Structures are given as C-alpha cells and as structure tokens.
Amino acid sequence: MNSARGTNIKKAVVSVAAIIAVVFFALNRIGIIDLTGSRETDVINDAVAVVNFIDVGQGDCELISLADGTDILIDAGNYSNRSEICSFLKTNNVDAIDLLVLTHPHTDHIGSASEIIKNFSVERIVMTDEESNSASYEYLLDSIISYDIPVDKARPNAEYSFGDCKLTILAPLAENNDLNECSIVCRLECGEVSFLFTGDAGNDSEQEMLQSGRILTSTVLKVGHHGSSTSSTKDFIAAVQPEFAVISCGSNNSYGHPHDNTLKRLDDVGAKVYRTDINGTVTVSTDGKNIHVSTEKK
Question: Residue 24 above 60 pLDDT?
Fold first, then answer.
C-alpha cells in the first residue's frame, strides 16, 4: 500500500473515532445515553418501592411504601417530631404500618413511636432487648402493651417478604454496652436495587458484619449515626459500595454531623450524597432496576 495513502486512511479512522467520541460524550451529557452505568433516571413509572428519608432534624425516620400496599417505618425521630411525622404519614396515604422497626432505644430514634402507635394501626414491631430509662422508652412500652402489638426480637438473617421485596435483618450480631452498637441494621432488596438502613451502628457492629460474610453491597445507604466518624469505616463503605448515600442530621447540630472524614470516605467510592439538613426529606423511588431521587429542598 502506498505509504501516503495509508497515512491518510489512518488519519481518517482517527478523525471518525474522535467524532464518535464527541457525539457519545454529548449524548451522555444530555442524558440520552449513559456511559457511567448509573441507575438514576428522571422518571419511575412503575415503582415497586418508594423510600422517604424524612427530615426529622437530628434523628432518624424512614418510610418505605411498597407496590403491594405494605408500609414499613424504620425509627420515629424525636418526640418533638410527632406531629410532622404523623402528618407526613397521612399525607402519603398511610393508614396502617405493617412493620415498625425501631433500631435502638435512643430518643432520637423512638421519640415519636408511642404517638405513631396511637394514631395508626401498627401490625408488628421489630426491636432489640436493649432498654433505656427515658420517658420515650417507657411511653413506647406502655403503648405496645395497651394496643397489644406483637413484637419480634431482631434476629440476624430474619427475613420479612412483601411482594417483590424482602427485608433482611443483618445486625446486631453481638452484645455491646453501647446502645448504638446494638442498632438493628436491615437491608431491603427490590429486584436489582437494594437499601441498607444502619441506625446508629458504629465501628464494632460494622466489623462484625464484615466478618460475618453477609451481603452488604447496596445501591442506597442510610449512613450510620448521622454521618458520625464513629461509623462508616473505610472497609465497611468499600463493602457496601453505595451509589447513593443519605445522611439524616439536623442543621447546625452540636455534634458537627456529618463529619468530614465520613464525607470523604463516601466520596472515595463515588457515592452521591444527600443530607436532610441541606436537602430536606429525600425520596428514592425504584422499579427494581432504576431509581429516581427527589428532594424537598433543591
């Protein structure tokens, strides 16, 4: 082949490749194609699950609404959140709570539980044997007795199936004097999309889960202990590999949550972070393959 002709052909091939690359990059930028492999989409038409990370300030409260009509509530914020949580549930057409998971008896996780029990039909509660001497905990126990609600002690590997979705208890795995380390950790699986809810589980609990060999990989992570550096170890985050992370914390809270090193660890794995102190309530919808994230505050 003539060397000049060969050189021209090579130049043409390079030019065409460059044009294709530019076109693909442009299509990716405007959302027509996705070169990143992200599950995020602008619209979910047939949601199998909608998860609301409710803005309760420095506390936790998540509402899971499934396509079969099941409503699951994980934690119940502070007592001061009782009106807003009850209002949020009613606004979202919740008549009954099929499963109430109370990760541990700190007041910022169980504070409104007694009021929720009074205002909604709670079919079953999952909690640990850990106790507290707070008024919120005493009100909770009184309400459970008064309304005769069945209570399951959280046991690792216990599964709750609802239509196409499954909730699995992963922790606590060991006794600990620290109530945070005794938090219930549970994983919701809906098709190819999964959510990991960690309560206030800290370094000890995370290490126990890592050693247990349990499946931790999850699309969405509810970051442990409001983004505290006492949770979200590098190894744990690497195992979870979240595409999205939600931090539930109060604006200008006295603890400095979320801590910078936690944010860095999430950034290191490429997780897109949402915070209730900045974004307000965060809502994640999924069809079992893709997800759509919307926030109360832009």
Answer: no
Output the DSSP codes for 60-104: --EEEEETTS-EEEE----GGGHHHHHHHHHHTT--EESEEE---
Query: Is the overall model pTM greater than 0.85, yes or no?
Result: yes
Question: Residues 251-291: pLDDT tens digits?
Answer: 999 999 999 999 999 999 999 999 999 999 999 999 999 99
What span, in angstroms and rounded, lies between the C-alpha atoms of 260 and 237? 15
Q: Is the Cβ–Cβ distance between 173 and 205 less than 8 Å?
A: yes
Which neighbouring-strand residues pair with 237?
A: none
Sign of the C-alpha dihedral computed for residues 181, 283, 94 and 134 taken in this order: positive
Closest CA to 52 of 28, 23, 77: 77
pLDDT digits (tens, 9 = 90+) for 159-183: 999 999 999 999 999 999 999 999 9
SS3 (DSSP) at 195: strand
Candidates 221, 222, 185, 208; CA nearest to 104 is 185
